[in-house]
Amino acid sequence: MVNRKELNPESGPVAAFGARVRKFREDRGWSQEDLAERTGYSSQHISAVETGRKPPTLPFSRRVDHAFGAAGSADSFEREWRDIRHGSLLEGFQEYVGYEGRAAEIRLYEVGVIPGLLQTPEYAAAIEAGHVERGAITTEQAQERVSLLAERQAALVRSPPPLVHMVLDESCILRPVGEPCVIQAQLKRLAEFAEQPNATLQVANFAMGVRRPFSLPITILTLSDRSLMSYAESATQGHLDRETTSVLPLLTAYHQLQKHALPQVDSVAMITQVRRGTS
Length: 279
Fold this sequence. Notes:
Layout: H1 13-27, H2 32-39, H3 43-50, H4 58-68, H5 77-87, H6 93-100, E1 105-110, H7 121-133, H8 139-153, E2 163-169, H9 170-174, H10 180-194, E3 199-204, E4 218-222, E5 228-233, E6 238-241, H11 244-260, H12 264-277
């Protein structure tokens, strides 16, 4: 017990999670080895979670719930894990992701940053590191945001895959993010995406001027029943609109955006030129 580390549950949600695991364990008179045996994780892993050195995962949360008999309860560890995870995301975004994963068609317009569906892990980590440096989110929240990308991107390779139409403002490919190798790999990922049979990729170059119908990012989803919804974000909240009457004008504007954006062959050529310039 001399090496026991004192915990401060108020230092953050990950620390609070770990402190509660320790309390549940000690209330039962179990050692870390006892809990490790009951969950299939090592005692070192248990220690790392309890002391906040390792953030919890969904599988871990479910294992400890089973071990403690807390599965499905109001104070389950899975519920706490989901609260931690959603705390790193804008309100409304998690609901949007559920629809995104089932959409038959995805139309995206982005400004300043490559959309999450196509971000490489290194590019995403560099973006989130900037948020951490500014104090906007914690390191744990940044890790959760990056890990979420893999789940979202799995939607692009499901069978059948969705049709994805992507228009990027020229600022997306010109903005430096991370080391040169990071942006080079990211631009390569964009070019590879454009080769997929279910994808179109265009760049809305600065020369479009006032013909650009959107000044902010927008996503339009078409579900399998052909219903429409749109998603947009402010600085503090995501807004999901399911009203077809209000989404249809956005769809019309998106078609106008595609009409005036660079054709795909010219867009890929621009991306390739920028990529060579970063080498």
